Amino acid sequence: QVQLVESGGGLVQAGGSLRLSCAASGRTFSGYGMGWYRQAPGKQRELVARITRGGSTVVADSVKGRFTIATDNAKITLYLQMNSLKPEDTAVYYCTAGTTWTITSGYNYWGQGTQVTVSS
Q1: Are 118 and 83 in contact (CB under 8 A)?
Q2: How many helices (H) and strands (E) does the chain have?
Q3: CA atoms within 13 A on the CB side of 71
Q4: Which of 65, 75, 106, 115 is geometrically suited to a Cys-Cys bond with 29, CB 3.0 to 4.6 A?
Q5: pLDDT by residue for the chain (120 residues), tens digit each?
Q6: Residues β-bridged to residue 77
Q7: What sections of 56-116 are H helices per DSSP?
Q8: Inter-CA distances, 12 with 63, 69, 73, Å
């Protein structure tokens, strides 16, 4: 079982930036697809961005141009750089990784989530 641990959430003012990190216990992300989802109160979980197993990057329209997904060269840590944050970005952000993906279920493994709150 792969455990994913997110960090980097917090409270930030609108227009500010945060960087989320995700690490997999006992292994790297090599060979995995990986991504970030978020779930706001009363809303369904939604895809924010992902990196496919082939290395392609997909970013949701709602965050395009503001958020960037990336890994370090060794694929030890997955990042989500969030700039120009808006109050509507407030949500619990989840890291997901694995070998199979659907848009609703994400990948095989999930982190516990990290809260991002953007104040107006």
Answers
A1: no
A2: 0, 11
A3: 27
A4: 75
A5: 889 999 999 999 999 999 999 999 989 999 999 999 999 999 999 999 999 999 999 999 999 999 999 999 899 999 999 999 999 999 999 999 999 999 999 999 999 999 999 999
A6: 23
A7: none
A8: 16, 19, 28
